[in-house]
Amino acid sequence: MNWLRQLFSHRRLYNDLSDEMQQHLDEKIEELVATGMSKKEATAAARRTFGNVTLIQQDSRDAWRWPSLEDFLTDIRISLRTLRKNPGFTAAAILTLSLGIGANTALFSVIDAVLLRPLPFRDPGRLVAVHSVDIKDPTHGGEISYPAFLDWRSRSHSFEAMSVWNATGLTYTGGDQPESVPGAMVSANLFSMLGVSPVLGRSFTDDEDQAADDQLPVILSYEFWQSHFGGQTSMLGRALTLDNAKYSVVGVMPAGFQFPVRKDRVELWVTIARDLQGKSAMAAQRGVSYLQVIGRLRPGVKIPQAQSDVLLIQEQLNRQYPEERPRGVAMESESDQIAGTMRPVLLILLGAVGFVLLIACANVASLLLARATVRQKEFTLRSALGASRWMIVRQLLTESTLLAMGGGVLGLLFARWATSALVAAAPQGLARTSDVGLDWRVLIFTLVVALATGVLFGLAPALQASRSGAGRILDDSSRGSSSGPSGTRLRSVLVASQLAIAFVLLTGAGLLLRSFDRLQHVDPGFRADHVLTFLLDVPSNRHPGAQRPVFVQQLLQAIKALPGVKSTGAVFGLPLSENESLFTAAEIEGHPVPPSQRPRVAFRIVESNYFDAMGIRLLQGRTFTPRDEQGGPPLAIINETLARQLFKGESPLGRRIKPSISFGESDDAPLREIVGVIADVKSGSIGGKTPLEIYAPQTPVDFIGEMTIVVRAATDPNALLPSVRSVVTTMDKDLPLRRVRTLDEYVSGSISAPRFEALLLGSFAALAFVLTTIGLYGVISYSVVQRTREMGIRVALGAQRASISTMVLRQGALLALSGVAIGLLTSLFAVRLIRNLLFGIGATDPVTFVAVPLLLMGVALLASYIPARRAMRIDPIVALRHE
Q: What pTM does this model have?
């Protein structure tokens, strides 16, 4: 190649060389034409042979014209041939990109289904969720009583329509076995408000919201209709037995219809008339708030205007009913309400996985820069033969785009698996996961990301490779540096950026992991191991009046007699479950306070052995006895927090407290004597605030038919399920077991959202960490290769080999320090985004902010150690001979 270097050192000879190559091209064309090719085919084939460079001066002058389709196809063919000749580089680049693109695609598929896709209702932008909140404690509440809702609906001027709903379980006994079916109780106008009509039959009518002596209406989901009745149209008008009451089928909803939109699909819908039966019906009590509200705004009305309208109505109700705790109003779009607290979490995770893709792009960009160094003589020759800088950039961008498309295809395969894993790990509060999938929107997203990625990581190397002139490139080569200082600086900047991004991700993941670890070590107030739970709805028509608590007691005794059962109990309002307790106001006898000042308490009804079965500690007094369940003076047990806040260090035993809730014929709630104090129990969530709690014994008066049975086993609680089910069937063959779970599953479900956040961000951070380590190792290794001649000369002049190793390690340490410094400053601002997701630690947790830089610095030195060892072993004679 010496003659070529001499030739290129004189720019006046370039045109002569072009003429010579043009002559070779003409000869090749004539040769191909002689074989029978057309002139056009022969010209194209000849140009491919000479590497797609433009050899004639006219093409060189017209280099910035828009390339034709033929030019693009030729670039693609040459790029494919070039990539095929370098299988190791191609495989490494595609695999790296597939991880970043696949992770982005998987997370986008979840975000698209949960956040971006419009709700499948008419004009969903005007649907809003309206919440009734406790003014004294806005973190609780959201539900409303039915009488208060009727006032809202009748007085508001901002809504076309308003409806209430409440998810509930319904016991279907029309099949071979009693079956618990997820259902919802709704206002009769709900479906018309949503703009969805049944595919068979009709919707509810307004008068079906009223209590009735005859059969109540029910609407079936399409899936329930098909699975249970084979899609028979004769189902209309037929009677179904639900909760031991007769319902008449009036319609079937379309396939795939969901309301409420949640993770578990509802199969049956009944009207609010279900809860209006009897004098003490829940829907008839203004003090019982358990319903959710959804409304459709009038055209042109915005949420702030509607909220002000309803808030004015609620303020009137607060004055009209001073015995009730004053309430306020909060409002949000229905789509935001469905996404809930997961919206910011998913957006944060999308940003994190975007950073992973940036690191992958930086890695591939470094590979391309290194590879471009090897190809500089090729680019110089092309330039000398008349190719413009734009043509070289275009060729390199085509190669990078093909790499990105290959990464996109492989990333789709990775995303298919990752999407399934994301849905499986999704927390309970993440709705619409059944809609997650790789549909056309996700495919378009992947295509756009792949194209953008190809340009992102390919542009800088392409510009860098095409910027230097032939003389400068050859001068650099003659000195032993094949890329020049600008290329080295660019790779160093890329690695420092990777380290900074990895620092931010590792810091966020470290904070969430430490927060999750704190949650796992929170004492829930009970022993969750070896406990089986299930929900029973004791029907009043088969077990009327005082027989209902007696039935529960007999059932518990029968279960306790089973081999392997240590103890049993029952509760209305199992901690950490969907079956929450009732919330009401309370006051202490002798200390009257205005209704607005009364504390909000959770009210639970329990069987006498419940505290023993749950492993809840008794701090003062005693627990309930079977005698207490037979009647007598109303009693109560309170939790430690209530005793501390309301009795200020005095003993509460023997004092009386009055929760504002009644289950008997009298509307006046009774005073209850406090006989015991128990340790605090986490009820809503493991990381949530402990509420004030009052427990009452189940009696013929104080009894709610829906009770959760608790069975503590000696070994595996699931092994008891067949025996327990047999006992229940023997005592009542039409009584199904609902929500059969272990207590450990409830505890695990309570921390499912923090687990999801920590798992995903931790996975993304780990991937970013690995890619960054590989990138740093690659840069240091390539630097050693670049400086082989320099290091050989240093050794030949007497430099110690240890000093050569130190020089390499110093380079890696400086890169790591610069990246860590930038990452540290960035993290101090970025951690504010996840501050609300943390539990038990601060956003600037010192353990995390010390461990992450130490980890990165340690790995950086380790990644530099192998190249440093290689540098120590350089033989100066071999190095100089090689150069």
A: 0.77
